[in-house]
Amino acid sequence: MTTIEIRADSPHSHKLIWFRRFRPHFDEWVFGPINRLVPSQDALASFILMACAIDYMAGFWWGKSTKNRNKAAYIGFIDTYFPPGRYESKALYDSLRNGLVHMFTVQGMKYALTHNHPEFHLSIDQGNQIILNAADFRDDLLAAKQRYFAEVEIKPELMDKLLERYRRDGFMGLGAIQIQHQAG
Questions:
Q1: Residue 48, SS3?
Q2: DSSP per residue, 116-137
Q3: What is the rounded radius of gyration, in angstroms, for the C-alpha atoms of the chain?
Q4: What per-residue string of b and e applies to 158-180 under the rule 16 or more CB within 10 Å gives b?
């Protein structure tokens, strides 16, 4: 994706043009790998990516720096955009974002992870853990992303927060790679 310069004083319509080019790139780089991993034997990696995707979108939603505010942004994003009453946002932050992403374990034993078992999603196992099925969790994450992005298009303040985060932290993309050869 080509980097597009967005001036802070540009009208919302110009920002929308940029955003509508950004969305497919975001979907390709963030949800593409998640969608490929969810049904696979590597579904654990999809949970890691989903926890990271929540963190990333929460940063866009938050706008300003999330340094020392990651928890508030993460929980706020889940509480705002995920289906009401389905997930405990603080537990997802502690178990998935902090536990799974940073320590490769489901911290606090609040959740148990599975894949290809939609019949178990959000039920309680014998250890009193809430079961998350990868595809169902992905579907709720995707719906949250769609709700958030739809609001970005109609609420200039959300667009401005997203752009603030984008300008500050960027987004992954393929650029020209130049390799310098060293004389041997």
A1: helix
A2: S-GGGTT-B-TTSPEEEEHHHH
A3: 18
A4: bbbbbbbbbeeeeeeeeeeeeee
Could you tell me the residue ranges of all domains in the chain?
A: 12-87+135-169
DSSP class of 83: P
Q: What pLDDT, in 10s, does the model give residues 8-37?
A: 555 678 899 999 999 999 999 999 999 999
Question: Is 6 strand, coil or helix?
Answer: coil
Residue 4's nearest CA partner among 148, 170, 159, 156 is: 170
- Report pLDDT digits (tens) over 112-170: 999 999 999 999 999 899 999 999 999 999 999 999 999 999 999 999 999 999 988 88
35: helix, strand or coil: helix
Using CA atoms, how far apart are residues 78 and 54, in angstroms rounded to an integer?
A: 8
DSSP string, 156-184: HHHHHHHHHHHHHH----------PPPP-
Q: Which of 58, 11, 7, 76 is nearest to 165 (CA)?
A: 58
Q: Which DSSP state fits 67? A: T
Q: CA distances (Å), 30 to each of 52, 111, 161, 164, 176, in order?
A: 9, 23, 19, 20, 21
